[in-house]
Specification:
The complex is a heterodimer of chains A (441) and B (316).
Chain A: H1 13-16, H2 37-45, E1 49-56, E2 64-72, E3 78-81, H3 83-91, E4 96-101, E5 107-109, E6 111-116, E7 121-125, E8 146-151, E9 159-168, E10 177-180, E11 191-193, E12 199-206, E13 213-218, H4 219-231, H5 240-261, E14 266-269, E15 272-275, E16 282-290, E17 296-305, E18 309-312, E19 315-317, E20 320-329, H6 334-346, E21 362-370, E22 373-384, E23 387-399, E24 405-417, H7 418-430, E25 433-434
Antiparallel strand pairs in A: 1-2, 1-4, 2-3, 3-7, 4-5, 6-7, 8-9, 8-11, 9-10, 10-13, 11-12, 12-13, 14-15, 15-25, 16-17, 17-20, 18-19, 20-24, 21-22, 22-23, 23-24
Helix pairs in contact in A: 5-7
Chain B: E1 5-10, E2 16-22, E3 27-30, E4 37-38, E5 49-53, E6 59-63, E7 70-73, E8 80-81, E9 86-89, E10 95-98, E11 101-107, H1 127-148, H2 153-181, H3 188-215, H4 222-245, H5 250-274, H6 300-312
Parallel strand pairs in B: 3-4
Antiparallel strand pairs in B: 1-2, 1-11, 3-5, 5-6, 6-9, 7-8, 7-10, 10-11
Helix pairs in contact in B: 1-2, 1-3, 2-3, 3-4, 4-5
Classes of the chains: A alpha+beta (441), B alpha+beta (316).
Chain lengths: 441, 316
């Protein structure tokens, strides 16, 4: 069984295994000690937390293809989970079906009623009308408050994990809570409750290669998703895949347009001036490295906006990242320096994309006059097979200034509409400038 | 008795295969063993034709009423069946076809062309030329390897040169064997000159196209430039090799060679176009020093507009 390859960046299941389990209480082993905070919250919430399973149609109901967690938010059987938990079903409803499993092993069908890809949420409906439900609290607790995450990690059965709420994560374009607690695969979509038993977040991911750095979807987005669902009382019976792609398009449109509204900080890099950090959520880093025997020097500046959206297994989209490398020739002869630049220019430019998701990539290469310098420019675009209006677009620029310094710039955008991508690229190219006198040493 | 004339059997390439003496006129030709000259061709009748002297003393040929008849042709002309059983006067240049056998009759007094003076082996056939071209080709392979790998280049340069040499030897081995099988000498050095010259032209040509593309900022996709040039080069290669192997007349040889060239490039282009790998792209990655850049480059707006048209139009 593949456990919710969900919890996106996690995947290091082996490491995480067992570390986060603070209490794995079952009714069979009732402790005699005084109920702790975690115990109290768990007892109150456990009946509302279900395992969400994606099964291959026609298969045994005990052999799930992937699993996650969901929690009931109304006594009419409506539950909240993550979009990525049900993504297989959304992308291929003919092959998969959804079902829930309670902690006492009762099973039943689930129906999808709303999705929100940008916030990674799904609203589902079950036949559990009498069960207990949890209350969503749109107001987050104060930083440092304890939080209790409940879910079904790996094959461990229902589990409660105690952690610390650490406010809004600064790493993402979209609002995500930073939760210091051990979230593990299978817990995606589970509730995180404050000590008073209200849900303030939904388990969504943990940071790979880090210690207990986990992320939650703020409950207010779940409130929004519920409201949207209530307004739209008629359950859309339809084409969830189209809805999903439409939401990706909306997300990327909003992302690129909001970026376009920001002033682009420009930064000197040798004799060049290049576009650098653009938005608060954009993370930039700089480094310098020398090649062997110090024949060339490379000065890097790279920026990334973490605005990724998970659409399905191996389709992550919505990223914007760019980098500039100033290549300075110290000891190489011009022929070798030229070859070095040429190799660097095309490296990784047309990384192969899975054919089942992408149409063939198209490229265009030209000599383009930038401000103060000519450059070799290469732009490639690969459209999504299921939604050809969206493409992954990449730009490579290599200045042809002719001296001992050249600039190699690259820009990658995923899941964007052509017009937005081109407008952004236009501005990116416009922001690159060369001046005869070095702007800085 | 002294011979009067000679009957020569001509092969497809126009060369004399066998020569029979004609001891006296008339001379009977056919497949039968009672004939003066016996032709082992199932399409020739037992008694097919007779060679005789006309009243003017000129030799002529007469069909003896066979089903396939006697056809007359001359160099560069098609064969035509002779009317009224007679093919007219034989002039020493005319060729005749009996069944599938081509013959020519020349009298003893036929004027042959004057002797050709002995010449030194032409430059293009000397082993020294082959060696020189091989050295140039190896130097180019080494230069390319050196350009690609400047750190610890010696090993890479050696293996690149060795690779090129092995490839060349395999190619030459094939052509020499074909030359031998076709009934002649192996002509190893002549094939070597052809192959080395081709490889040098190929490398220089590809570099020149890349440079042209870069310098003028050409908009054609690279295969549109490479394909015609490659066709031309490959046709030339096969023409030169085939000319050493078979003695077809030049126009037919040229046709054969260009068909091979066209076919191989065509197959390569079609294969390339049919590739379904979405990671496959067609763009010019060659970059030279900016002093070789002769174009001002297009404006940013123009580039964006072209990208919009070429990368995002939904003609997929």
């Amino acid at each position: 069984m593949r456990i919710d390859r969900a919890l996106r960046r996690l995947l290091c299941i082996g490491v995480g295994f067992g570390l986060g389990v603070v209490a794995a209480a079952t009714d069979a082993v009732e402790p005699k000690t005084k109920t702790s905070g975690a115990r109290a919250v768990f007892v109150k919430a456990r009946d509302a937390v279900l395992q969400v399973q994606v099964n291959v149609r026609g298969s045994d109901s005990d052999s799930a293809s992937s699993t996650g967690t969901g929690f009931l938010v109304s006594n009419r059987g409506v539950l909240i989970s993550n979009y990525h938990v049900v993504a297989d079903y959304v992308l291929d409803p003919a092959r998969y079906r959804l079902q829930y499993k309670t902690r006492d092993n009762r099973q039943g069908a689930l129906e999808l009623v709303a999705i929100d890809l940008a916030n990674d949420l799904a609203v589902l409906k079950s036949d559990l009308t009498t069960a207990a439900s949890l209350e969503l609290d749109a107001t987050p607790p104060a930083r440092g408050e304890r939080g209790f995450s409940i879910g079904y990690p790996l094959n461990q059965g229902i589990t409660v994990v105690e952690g610390t709420f650490n406010g809004v994560s600064e790493d993402f374009y979209r609002e995500n809570f930073h939760f210091t607690g051990a979230l593990n695969p299978g817990m995606s979509g589970g509730p995180v409750l404050s000590a008073d038993g209200k849900v303030f977040g939904v388990n969504v991911a943990h940071q790979r290669g880090a210690q207990l750095v986990s992320f939650l979807v703020p409950a207010r987005f779940a409130v929004d998703a519920m409201q949207a669902f209530r307004k739209d009382v008629v359950i859309p019976s339809g084409d969830w895949m189209n809805t999903a792609w439409r939401q990706v398009a909306q997300h990327s449109e909003m992302l690129v347009r909001s970026l376009q509204e920001h002033v682009w900080e420009s930064q000197p890099l040798g004799s060049f001036s290049v576009p650098a950090k653009q938005a608060a959520a954009m993370h930039c880093s700089q480094s310098v490295d020398l090649t062997r025997e110090e024949k060339t020097e490379h000065q890097h500046l790279s920026c990334k906006l973490n605005a990724g959206v998970y659409v399905g297994n191996d389709i992550h989209t919505g990223y914007v990242e760019f980098s500039h490398t100033l290549v300075r020739n110290r000891k190489l002869n011009p022929l070798h320096f030229n070859r070095l630049l040429r190799n660097g220019f095309t490296r990784g430019s047309t990384a192969s994309r899975p054919e089942k998701h992408y149409l063939p990539m198209r490229c265009l290469d030209r000599i383009v006059a930038l401000r103060g310098v000519r450059a070799k420019a290469l732009m490639c675009a690969a459209a999504y097979r299921k939604h050809p209006e969206l493409s992954d677009v990449m730009l490579r620029l290599l200045t042809l200034q002719g001296g001992a310094e050249e600039l190699n710039s690259r820009l990658d955008m995923q899941g964007v509409v052509a017009a937005d991508a081109l407008a952004y690229i236009d501005r990116f190219m416009e922001s690159i400038q060369w001046q005869a006198k070095p702007i800085s040493k | 008795m002294a011979s009067e004339a000679y009957l020569e059997i001509i092969d497809r390439e126009g060369q004399v295969r066998r020569r029979h003496e004609i001891a006296q006129w008339p001379c009977r030709i056919g497949r039968g063993y009672d004939q003066d000259i016996i032709l082992d061709d199932p399409h020739v009748a037992a008694a097919h034709a007779v060679l005789e002297l006309s009243v003017q003393g000129e030799p002529s040929i007469r069909d003896l009423g066979t089903c396939n008849g006697v056809l007359r042709g001359s160099p560069g002309h098609r064969f035509r069946r002779c009317e009224c059983a007679a093919c007219g006067v034989i002039d020493g240049e005319a060729v005749f076809r009996l069944g599938k056998t081509t013959i020519r009759i020349r009298r003893k007094d036929f004027q042959v062309a004057p002797e050709l003076p002995l010449e030194r082996t032409p430059l293009l056939r000397r082993p020294a030329t082959a060696a020189l071209l091989y050295v140039v080709l190896s130097a180019m392979a080494m230069l390319q390897a050196w350009l690609a790998e400047w750190d610890e280049a010696a090993g890479k340069i050696f293996s690149a040169t060795l690779g090129a040499t092995v490839l060349l030897m395999v190619w030459l081995g094939i052509w020499s064997a074909v030359s031998r099988l076709a009934g002649g000498a192996a002509l190893f050095f002549q094939h070597a000159i052809v192959a080395c010259a081709f490889a040098i032209v190929w490398i220089l040509g590809a570099g020149a196209i890349d440079l042209l593309h870069f310098s003028f900022g050409l908009e054609e996709q690279s295969w549109a430039l490479y394909a015609p040039a490659a066709t031309l080069a490959l046709s030339g290669l096969f023409y030169a090799h085939l000319r050493l192997v078979m003695r077809l007349p030049p126009p037919r040889l040229l046709m054969l060679a260009s068909s091979i060239g066209l076919l191989s490039v065509g197959v390569a282009v079609v294969q390339d176009r049919l590739k379904k790998d979405p990671g496959h792209t067609d763009f010019q990655s060659a970059i030279f020093h900016s002093s070789l850049l002769l174009t001002q480059g297009q404006s940013r707006q123009e580039f964006i507009a072209q990208a919009k048209r070429r990368l995002f139009q939904p003609d997929r």
